[in-house]
Design goal:
- This is Replication-associated recombination protein A.
- One of its GO terms (biological process) is DNA synthesis involved in DNA repair.
- The chain has 425 residues and is of the alpha/beta class.
- The chain has 19 helices and 7 strands.
- It folds into 4 domains: 5-146, 3-Layer(aba) Sandwich (Rossmann fold); 152-226, Orthogonal Bundle (Helicase, Ruva Protein, domain 3), CATH 1.10.8; 238-326, Up-down Bundle (Zinc Finger, Delta Prime, domain 3), CATH 1.20.272.10; 346-421, post-AAA+ oligomerization domain-like.
- It has helices spanning 5-8, 21-24, 29-36, 52-63, 77-90, 105-117, 130-133, 136-139, 152-164, 179-187, 193-206, 219-226, 238-252, 256-268, 272-287, 292-308, 314-326, 332-345, 406-421, and strands at 42-45, 66-71, 93-98, 120-126, 143-146, 175-177, 215-217.
């Protein structure tokens, strides 16, 4: 039986893993575990196709431990016993347990002592939040790592590797793939490498060779194999960014229908990653303090969309898009922090005032640190006039409040009242 390309291309050592550099890159936690051969059981959680199985396979390959794969939902306690017997006979076994959130109590009770004594290094894989959906007994015996959707650059790197690998990949085919086709393949699967690899294999094996034996893969062929249209992609990728830009500007300009139009173009192309990321930016950049509750609800909508996936993700996102369009707008928070950053980056900052410096250690008082600090809670209304900024910036004002919503209007009144009480004009 011919195994799928995504299966064949799984890494056999840690250096071959694509993406997840915050976990497997040089000096990072999983890389260190492998290097020291001090593995601990772990749970990897994140969307499908982001490398959970690849990480487990690479850990086993790099440490030369036996590697076994089971599914918590479909495999039985007897299957676990077989792995346990193998560990007893030949030493440590790395066990990838897929869908670990569906592990029942019987299997869990069997596993716990094996995790305690290190006979089995458990790598649980799940798309569910382990802090909510995994039993505390298992959770307390594992380290939890989140894996993220791969970037288009990560996926493109893996696709090129598969095209040139003559042993496990497609290197024995004479493939000519157009640059827009591979770029679309790298972006249209929302960071799911498995889907990209399997679509590439389908494209190569289902396309007729020309008279010279070459297989020419166009963007149209990739669109057919993925069943997605490249609505937002052009040769240089400009159209993709144009749509994202138009999406944000439509919300900023309070045009609900335009915002839904551009969001639909992103949804139809399958680009959920760009859509939810941009929506979060918009909420805090363009609505911000004018409606903090709208920002919070956007976060909830984005989290719901990620859990639902497309096509259902469109529903919470539409709720959020409409609310943001019709909310009052304010960029005052972004402008405030950018103004403060400008001072810091230009070297325009002074020494922390003595009364604000750390005073918890012995001898701090002799240095005058914290001596004259006034604890606000000891004063009426839990406030007292004192200087917080360095001397050279004591009159700086970064926040320029707006009055475009009830909430920020209240913030503005309080901010101005406090500045006046502090002696500022």
């Amino acid at each position: 039986m011919q195994q799928p390309l995504a299966y064949r291309m799984r890494p056999t050592k840690i250096e071959e893993i694509v993406g997840q550099k915050d976990l497997v890159g040089p000096g990072k936690i999983i890389n260190r575990m492998v290097k020291a051969k001090m593995l601990s059981s772990m749970i990897l959680y994140g969307p499908p196709g982001t490398g959970k199985t690849s990480i487990a396979s690479a850990i086993a390959g790099s440490t030369k431990y036996a590697f076994r794969m089971l599914n918590a939902a479909t495999d039985t306690k007897k299957d676990l016993q077989i792995v346990a017997e193998e560990a007893k006979m030949s030493g440590t076994v790395v066990l990838l347990l897929d869908e670990i959130h569906r592990l029942d109590k019987t299997k869990q009770d069997f596993l716990l002592p094996l995790l305690e004594n290190g006979a089995i290094i458990l790598i649980g894989a799940t798309t569910e939040n382990p802090y909510i959906n995994i039993n505390p007994a298992i959770r307390s015996r594992t380290q939890i790592f989140e894996v993220h959707p791969l970037s288009p650059d990560d996926i493109e790197q893996a696709l090129h590797r598969a095209l040139h690998d003559t042993k496990k990949g497609l290197g024995n085919y004479q493939v000519q793939i157009d640059p827009p086709a591979i770029k679309f393949l790298a972006t249209a699967t929302n960071g799911d490498l498995r889907s990209s690899l399997n679509a590439l294999e389908l494209a190569v094996k289902s396309t007729e060779k020309d008279k010279d034996g070459n297989i020419h893969i166009t963007q149209a062929i990739i669109e057919e194999c993925l069943q997605r249209k490249a609505l937002n992609a052009d040769k240089n990728g400009d159209a993709h960014y144009d749509v994202i830009s138009a999406f944000q500007k439509s919300i900023r300009g309070s045009d609900t229908d335009a915002a839904l139009h551009y969001a639909s173009r992103l949804i139809e192309s399958g680009d959920l990653v760009s859509l939810v990321r941009r929506l979060l930016v918009i909420a805090y950049e363009d609505i911000g303090l004018a409606s903090p509750a709208a920002c919070e609800r956007t976060v909830l909508a984005v989290n719901a969309a990620k859990q639902l996936g497309l096509p259902e993700a469109r529903i919470p996102l539409a709720n959020s898009i409409i609310e943001l369009c019709l909310s009052p707008k304010s960029n005052s928070a972004m402008m405030a922090v950018d103004s403060a950053l400008s001072d810091v980056r230009s070297g325009n900052y002074g020494d922390v005032p003595l009364h604000l410096k750390d005073a918890h250690y012995k001898g701090a008082a002799k240095l005058g640190r914290g001596v004259e600090y006034k604890y606000p809670h000891d004063f009426p209304n839990d406030w007292v006039k004192q200087q917080y900024l360095p001397d050279k910036l004591k009159n700086a004002q970064y926040y320029k409040p707006k009055s475009n919503g009830r909430i920020e209007t209240a913030f503005k009144e309080q901010y101005q009242k406090l500045r006046q009480s502090s002696g500022h004009k």
